[in-house]
Amino acid sequence: GAPTISIFQKPPGVIPPGGSTTICCSCQRDNGYFDLYKNGRWVRTLELRSSRAEFSISNATQNDTGAYSCHYRDGDTVLAHSETLEIQVQGFRLPKPVLSVLPGHDVAAGADVVFRCTIAHPKAGCFLYLEGWVKEVKFISKDEDCKLSHVHKGNEGRYSCQCFTRNASFEWSAVSKTLDLVVR
After folding, report:
1. Residues 102-133: pLDDT tens digits?
2. Quick one: which of 17, 46, 131, 148 has the most CB atoms within 10 Å?
């Protein structure tokens, strides 16, 4: 059957102008190539290394905003396509949020965990990110927490949050420091 491939952004979130990020494409295969596409147009090809390819964006500009996808191929045959990853480049105008997790970042399987993204702005909403996911884990509105019930090994990973306001246009914060969640 066709291999399953994934695409994600590291670190996740909106990028500031001049900032950098990496688009990661991964597959359970050891050889072959990944073609990176932006808005349906070919950008670049990389050979698989340790079942993944990493495409770097540095000194980001508005031109880097777009819908990215990976096509995995062996020789000339495309075997699989990834989901679409939206990359945004925006200036940061809001203060940087602080991410916290209760009861702590090291929990037993089956526990309930609460993520709180705190920002000094009266109307900001926030996204909770988990590195390796193509989309945000959850939208968190102002003064709300994100609760994960009965956590398991699949919830482990590196979390961060990023906040925004929606006025005439979107205004963004930088991404919070990351928190690693460990599930025993």
Report:
1. 999 999 999 999 999 999 888 899 999 999 98
2. 148
Our CA dihedral for 89, 93, 96, 102, rounded to 10 degrees, sits at -80
pTM: 0.88
3-state secondary structure of 129: strand
Measured on CA atoms in the order 56, 20, 156, 107, is the torsion positive or negative?
A: positive
Write phi, then psi, for 63 (nearest 5 degrees): -65, -20
Express each pLDDT in 25-52 by its tens digit: 999 887 899 999 999 999 999 988 888 8
Amino acid at 12: P
CA dihedral in degrees (126, 16, 98, 141; nearest 10)? -10
The dihedral sign for the CA sequence 131, 53, 64, 85: negative
Region(s) of the chain under CATH 2.60.40.10: 5-87, 92-183
